[in-house]
Design a protein that fits this description.
This protein folds into two domains: 260 residues, 3-Layer(aba) Sandwich (Carbamate kinase); 93 residues, Archaeosine Trna-guanine Transglycosylase, Chain: A, domain 4, CATH 2.30.130. 37% of the residues lie in helices and 21% in strands. It has 14 helices and 19 strands. The strands form five sheets. The chain has an eight-stranded mixed β-sheet, sandwiched between helices. Strand 5, helix 5 and strand 6 form a beta-alpha-beta unit. Helix 2 packs across helix 4 and helix 7 packs parallel to helix 9. The two termini are 36 Å apart.
Length: 374
Amino acid sequence: MMDIVVIKIGSSIITTEAGLEEEKIAHIARDVSNIKDKGFAPVLVSSGAVSAGRVKLGLKGKLQGINLKQAAAAIGQSSLVWAYERAFSHRFNKQVAQVLLTRNVFSNRQRYINVRNTLLCLLDLNVIPIINENDTVSFDEIKFGDNDRLASLVAVSLEAKHLIILSDVGGLYTANPKKLPDAKLISKVDDINQEVLSLAKGAGSIFGTGGMYSKLIAARIATDHGVAVQIVNGRKDGILNDVFDGRSEGTYFTPKDKRYGQRKGWIASGIHARGALLIDEGAVQAVVNKCKSLLSSGIKGIEGNFERGDAVYVVCPDGNHAAKGLINYSSREMLKIMGKKSSDIEDILGYKYSDEVIHRDNMIVLVEKTKDTD
């Protein structure tokens, strides 16, 4: 299988108050072309449409209101893609393709597979996909942060080897380096825990919406699925060549050893959870330690409104997420059968879809085993 590399480019890397920095885009195209010529399959996730549209409209500073941002995205997207088209095709003889995605593409299994197959087809055709959030019809980017999470979901879906995030901050620091010059760069992170997340404080620049926190969340999604992540200074010329030539740059996030399969990876990160099931300790032992399906008898409470087939979290008594899976019963039905034996479900509801509330084949465990069960 080809070595796929996803490169996320933030707005602040390729835009200024004067609009798109086409020379910077040309430098990125040069480096990405070099990476491709080395045998890698690059995929770009690029912000910049809203910023480009803001400048074309003659507006200053951050835009207020979803509708104005969506209008700016519609106006700026063509300029953004045309800048990449000129840089790659005219200068380096590489073909590119525009791909606009919305967050709900990843929540629907059929659309998720279709997007994956389309992207893989483009790579097989030797084309470089240029992906962006479809801001004209979706405001997920504004909520989730400058395409960081979109880039991680793309990397997971393609089973990429590496996700590189080009940022205006050259990695994760012990404090905000823009405010504290003595802040130290953290060159490697093996576990993105709460202590690490607490280091990411403050907002991003006026040209982008994602701060370091959104990048860490994206990095955690990717590394949990076996994708290595690196946050580097995207303003440094030749930074991508430095990374691929093995020179240490920015902050490297170590991928987990175990890579989920495509279906369980989709359950873990692609689809939104619509609620939660609160389980007892016996159910924790069954689900986590023995890899069993979840039964109604171990459920002590529910949260949220969900339908059959929705994703829900499975929550331990201590409040931690033990698992996530596709549920066989709605929240209305769960209120009636929680704590009951599987053999009683049909008598209670008048019908039964399954003995299991969540089958083990439709569930991903999110925590380590609590004890040796041999």
